[in-house]
Amino acid sequence: MTEARGSAGPNGTPCWVSLMVHGLTTTQEFYGELFGWEFQPGPQQLGPYVRALLDGHEVAGIGQLPPDRHLPIAWTPYLASDDVDLTAETVRLCGGTIGVGPLDAGDAGRLAIGSDPSGAVFGVWQAGVHRGTGISGVPGTPAWHELLTFETASVAKFYETVFGYDEEPVVSADLDHVTLQLAGRPVAGIHGVGSSLPRDRGPHWMTYFQVSDTDDTLALLTALGGHILEHPHDTPHGRVATVSDPEGARFSVVRATP
């Protein structure tokens, strides 16, 4: 590590979301049309990589996989850390793994990519000049991150130990759900769904993007070559649907309730 870096928020704050794909240009076209994103290249240390902008604010990142890497195409949330090297070591000590890094992304920051004990992949970001997503609460921005896993008890303990979360479980006989909190503020969720997990995916993080109208977004998404995986339904948090882009990356869209 070279110099002291800034923070993208308290440890554990979801601060960025990134997608690695095979077709970088076609993926930019898809999300540009869907969410109104524009793109800027860099950081160069991450290879072919662009940052999505909304009204000039950074929202998300999209990178290109090497042709010989056949990894799952998935949106990956990055959780803030004041010391990514220490966080990576804690991940290992708590039964997780670190697959990439820690490594510097120029002066943008320092990162690692790991997985929890159930295999769900997440990133860790120590901010330099890039402090993460710069706008929220408007269509086209990440609204929520939820871990879909077999059961919450053991994996929630992992995230609480590594990132210092408090948890607020849902008291219900038929719902296994925990809300992860920092300083009393909900920042992410863990949903135990047992055998309902997709067999081809296993435990994974799901990013929810805010939209102005869920049904209109789905019509545009399918016209652009995306797919509807779970049809829209109303929830206490808004109208939600689960979808995938043309390369198969899953995400959800939500029209927040007023």
Can you characterise this structure?
It is a single chain. This protein has 258 residues and is an alpha+beta fold. It folds into two domains: 14-127, 2,3-Dihydroxybiphenyl 1,2-Dioxygenase, domain 1 (Roll), CATH 3.10.180; 142-256, 2,3-Dihydroxybiphenyl 1,2-Dioxygenase, domain 1 (Roll). It is 17% helix and 43% strand. It contains four helices and 16 strands. Strands 2-3-4-1-5-8-7-6 form an eight-stranded mixed beta sheet, covered by helices on one side. Mean pLDDT is 91; it is low at 1-7. InterPro entries: Anthracycline_SecMetBiosynth, Glyas_Bleomycin-R_OHBP_Dase, Glyoxalase_6, VOC_core. Residues 13-127, 141-256 form the VOC domain. It comes from Streptomyces aquilus.
Quick summary:
The strands form two sheets. The chain has an eight-stranded mixed beta sheet with strand order 2-3-4-1-5-8-7-6, with helices on one face. The chain has an eight-stranded mixed beta sheet with strand order 10-11-12-9-13-16-15-14, with helices on one face. It has helices at 24-35, 84-93, 152-163, 214-223; strands spanning 14-21, 38-41, 49-54, 57-64, 75-80, 97-104, 109-115, 121-127, 142-149, 166-169, 176-182, 185-192, 204-210, 227-235, 238-244, 250-256.
